[in-house]
Amino acid sequence: MHGYWRFEYALRTGPHRRVFVLFCSAGNPDVTDVAQCVIDYCDTKRPPDKIYLIAPNSEKQALEDILASPAFQDRIRDVTRSVDQPRAELLLFDSAGITRNAAAEVVPSSDLNALKRLGLTYLIHNHPVFLVAPPSHHFVVPSETHADVFFRIGSAMADGAAIDFLAYCCLPFFVDREVKHIYCDTGAISPVAYAINALRSRVPPGGKPVASVSSFGSYKGAPDFKFREVDRSVILISVSTSGGLARLLCESGNDIQDSDIVTLFTLYEPKGTAKVVCNLLKDESNPDGFDEVKNFRERDCPLCAEESTRIVISTEQFLPGRGTTESLIMRVSHSPKWLSPFLKQFVGTGVIRANYKSGDSNHATKEVFFNLQTFFADSEMLKIEPYGLRLWRTVDRVVPASLTRILCLNSPASHALAERIKQRLGPKWSSVEIVNHQEVLSNVDQHRKSSGATLVVAAAAASGRSLQAVSQLLRTIQTNGAITYLIGLARFPDKHAQDEVESNITYGDHPKEHGFFVIDHVFLPLVGSQTKTSWEMELDLIDRALVAPENESTQMALERRGQAIRKASETQGMSDSLFWGKINGQSLSLRPGFAFHHDFNPSISASQADVFFTIVAVLHNLRSERRSSESLFQHEYRRRVLSPICFDRFNDGVIQGSILRAAHPAELDYSIDERLSSAMWQILDTIFSSSTTQVGEAALEFLLAIALKRLKLLKRDLEKLKAKFGGAIDHPIARLLWTIVGQ
């Protein structure tokens, strides 16, 4: 929202607490806008423990009125929590950057500096500032040294309120002189200089003269640039990994001192009188910071010795040279370590489903669903081992002898697991009550206890938001702190996210205050791999085509397919029928020899959903390895696509359909490279030419991917493909899709 910028951080001292910061640079802030900023945050994040509103002291009265207004208080209560609601605190700053709380007390510099540092680190992480060279390339940076990473701060100059926040952080460095000129090392950070001017003029005690803003062109421009009235100037450096530019400016013969220079961001520990707004280095107080950057002189560069290609950072705007496109062949070695043991338990059981999301799993991807309700409701838990063995071993070991209550999340699967655990405990624990989170919220006082112990049971956890809400509630209803958490299946995006949830939930006033036990885990993307799943996109296409179907056979085929997809909401997802069948109408089925299932019992028959889940997990793992030589993580100058060879190596229709639906569109965009587009054209030529044989059994899936623009070729290759096969495949859906291709 214009005029407001937000970020979050965790308090690292004492109990872990999450702080939400809203920086208000808008004039005359509106109660609806401020409340909406908090609401938007809480729609995607766990409710914070504290809220800070930071604003110029010129907006003091407006923000005090907002915080006191019932409209703001009611809306915040609705989106945070009814118990232990976070308090919103107002911090106001003057033109010198001095910040005071609502009681007009100066905020301690240690607290404020930590807030600024964490906020600015968040800003850098959320823009394409940190550029990592691909394995075969490295950067020649403005200092003419060589490195495999580069920070381009100008890429963060996108949000006006965020720029104002950076300017606010700079204000304390502008109080010791009457500033007439601001010199920037690159024009890309001139918005910061203009924002500093605006704040110094606007914020009481204002009236500061507006300084001129110029760029001196960094290393190349500095020797010839005429710095005027240095004693009435401030020199802004965007980022420094070693302090080299500041040393160059302060060389003998120049009338420039350390005190004249303010560096916005550093990747080293500043010394002496250096003025630094934010040190981005990773350390205990800045855990999301960056590692130290290693720069090499050309003659000593190990990257050059390995014949790595140079990307020269050129122009006054610090732009990298031409980007590259690289392709990646999926291999068994790309499988995450957790995948094979998990699959051996669940493949063929019907637990793994696709295209469904239950109402209690708001943050999990709709692409993959685990039918845990059926699993836990079964008295033998479908005889899935060693999951059952691990579950009962954990229950026998961690359930406290003083257990009086099992509190489960608001899902049928969690309740089924709670019932199964109580049954396991036996008659001795027959008095243990099972309640869900919603029941407790409806009458908190009735459930308040100062003795006994609570076991929190969650069938699955995706974002940890529900667990966090339960944790907040238990602070008030299990006052002796005897709480244990048991999660049947953790499905976080990565190990770091899982550890963070565990840390936030289990750390109270004492380290690791509560037990936290996970029976099994998978790492999957949250909220899906794209805005809409491939099935939702397919349904949109079907609904449009049904407005005016070409003929009765096309209409019947579309209606059958649409019904199969919509039926997923009734059957808790799809096990099979994920893909269009063969041209002859038969369903696709996995043939023996799937590389990722190579050591499985041959008697086990994998469903289409089992295979799709496998591919989703492998691709997610490839995207998560950002700096690996084999990664699908996209950089602005380096594009990674799945090699067309993947569809030759994995020539089974079920596997090909899974790749086409699980991959991000950017990973199937062969239109960005002439060579790759030609290679994919050859693959498609073979598949469409053999559409009535095993080789082309997924022809309709490839055609659908092209029609939905998930798979792209150069225009000339697409036209050549359409000219050859547009009327050659005798199937009503194929004819329909060819009419859509190229539109």
Would you write up a description of this structure?
- By secondary structure, the chain is of the alpha/beta class.
- The chain has four domains: 4-93, Transcription Regulator spoIIAA, CATH 3.30.750; 130-312, Rossmann fold (3-Layer(aba) Sandwich); 356-521, Rossmann fold (3-Layer(aba) Sandwich), CATH 3.40.50.2020; 534-740, no CATH class.
- Helix content is 35%, strand content 17%.
- The chain contains 25 helices and 24 strands.
- It has a five-stranded mixed sheet with strand order 1-2-3-4-5, with helices on both faces. A five-stranded parallel sheet has the order 11-10-12-13-14. Strands 20-19-21-22-23 form a five-stranded parallel sheet, sandwiched between helices.
- Helix 1 (31-44) runs parallel beside helix 3 and helix 5 (160-170) crosses helix 6 (190-202).
- The longest helix has 17 residues, at 109-125.
- The protein is globular and about 80 Å long.
- The model has no long low-confidence stretch (mean pLDDT 89).
Give the structural class.
Answer: alpha/beta
Binned, the helix content reads 25-40%
Spatial extent as radius of gyration:
30 Å
Distance between termini? 35 Å
Domain module tally: 4
Please state roughly what percent of the residues sit in beta strands, choosing from under 5%, 5-15%, 15-25%, 25-35%, 35-45% or over 45%: 15-25%
Low-confidence stretches: none
Number of helices: 25
- Let me know the average pLDDT: 89
Shape category: globular
Largest sheet: 5 strands, mixed
Strand order in the sheet with the most strands: 1-2-3-4-5
